[in-house]
Amino acid sequence: MDLSLVIPVYNEQENLPLLFEAVYKTMNPLGKTWEAILVDDGSRDESLSVLMEYAAKDQEHIRVVSFRRNFGQTAAIAAGLDYSSGEIIVLLDADLQNDPADIPMMLAKLDEGYDLVSGWRKNRKDNAVTRNFPSMVANRVISQVTGVHLHDYGCTLKAYRRDVLEGFRLYGEMHRFIPVYASSVGAKITEVVVNHHPRKFGKTKYGLERTAKVILDLFTVKFLVSYSSKPIYLFGGTGGLLMIISAFIMAYLFFRRIFFLVGVTGSPLFQTSVMFFILGFQSILMGLIAELLLRTYHESQHKPTYTVRKVINMESKYD
């Protein structure tokens, strides 16, 4: 299979006929083998019935995954990736705010040698206060923290080579951080301006509360990307810093005791120094335990500690 479209669906019964029309109009002229994986995320309207109707009409291209209940967009995307078989994966929303007509342009970018092409909704048609401004702030924070600079992490419309999506699982609101994971395995990433349309039917599923979730997930992503292969750097570094602060406080107390005859143990700084030392020592021990767990994880599952783009005149060890 050349290409898989992965489309999460939640209460989009009115948009689905228009979505299928746009998908067929875009995909049929491409001359590629393709499939559309539509994941019904526990819709409460007739979305699943519409999906089943189209799947019955076109068994060659349309596949449907139906959840027992609503698990969220990230889970729907993860399921779509699991059930897809294309060498190239394109993600897009079902609400028609993403335009399937942009897909050929993104595929052309992949042909230039990129591994991931991310959409940028430069002229976004959403509420400026509740959607656009929080999104702009979140994008800047994510770019600064992760080092992967994109204007629009929240745009679902993205095209990937399958090999950069392997080796990690998606949880929480992690789907927006896929470019960060891909970058950690050496993916070449670019961003292109895509169309964005106002929603015709239904209502948005997200509000301001999503921004808080994204920021919390950012902590997890930063840890996994920067320290998952060497957790002692985080725990040991933090522990070492606490022990150094403890040593400076203790040195100050002894200096004051010797030259100014001020008691050491009666000062609150003494308890602070002891507490910092204990916390620092415990942090280092946690880092060592994390290193043991990491080695158990890699060695028990034969997980490589590197990623290979390609090999020449030999077979890959992990095919």
- Share of β-strand residues: 5-15%
Broad shape: elongated
Order of strands, widest sheet? 3-2-1-4-6-5-7
Query: In the residues, how many domains can be counted?
Result: 2
Order of helices and strands: EHEHEHEHEHEHEHHH
How many DSSP E strands? Answer: 7
Largest sheet: 7 strands, mixed
Radius of gyration, in Å, reads: 25 Å
- CATH C-level of the largest domain: Alpha Beta
User: What do we call the CATH homologous superfamily of the largest domain?
Assistant: Spore Coat Polysaccharide Biosynthesis Protein SpsA, Chain A
The helix content, as a percent range, equals 40-55%
Alpha-beta classification: alpha/beta
CATH architecture of the largest domain: Alpha-Beta Complex
What fold name goes in the CATH topology slot of the largest domain?
A: Spore Coat Polysaccharide Biosynthesis Protein SpsA, Chain A
* Low-confidence residue ranges: none
Mean pLDDT: 87
Describe the structure.
By secondary structure, the chain is an alpha/beta fold. Helix content is 47%, strand content 12%. The model has no long low-confidence stretch (mean pLDDT 87). A seven-stranded mixed beta sheet has the order 3-2-1-4-6-5-7, with helices on both faces. It folds into two domains: 3-226, Spore Coat Polysaccharide Biosynthesis Protein SpsA, Chain A, CATH 3.90.550.10; 232-300. The two termini are 17 Å apart. The radius of gyration is 25 Å and the shape is elongated. The chain contains nine helices and seven strands. Strand 2 (34-40), helix 2 (47-57) and strand 3 (62-66) form a beta-alpha-beta unit. Helix 8 packs antiparallel against helix 9.
